[in-house]
Amino acid sequence: xxxxxxxxxxxxxxxxxxxxxxxxxxxxxxxxxxxxxxxxxxxxxxxxxxxxxxxxxxxxxxxxxxxxxxxxxxxxxxxxxxxxxxxxxxxxxxxxxxxxxxxxxxxxxxxxxxxxxxxxxxx
Length: 123
Hints:
By secondary structure, the chain is mainly α. The protein contains five helices and no strands. The chain has helices at about 1-25, 30-35, 45-65, 70-95, 95-120. The longest helix is centred in the first third of the chain and has 24 residues, at about 1-25.
């Protein structure tokens, strides 16, 4: 189970690192062209989400890998759950069913990590 949790944590961290870096490095105009939901929020909110995604990715892996403040790993997983809960209605507003499905999948996987790392499989 520990190996499975690590695979899930690293997978989510890679996805969140990628998403966060895109939001932090590309122009807001370019982001709005590629992400219809970004048109409905201020530019600073897109940047802030990118920063949170990047920090969350770090929190999913680094504390557990180093054994330092390892409680931050399941906390980061809960942050992923909250982000995904927020993303579902946003994507529903744009009619993006694929993004909704992916958000729900990540939500379930992050909830698994949070439950397991807080409970029977701590790091």
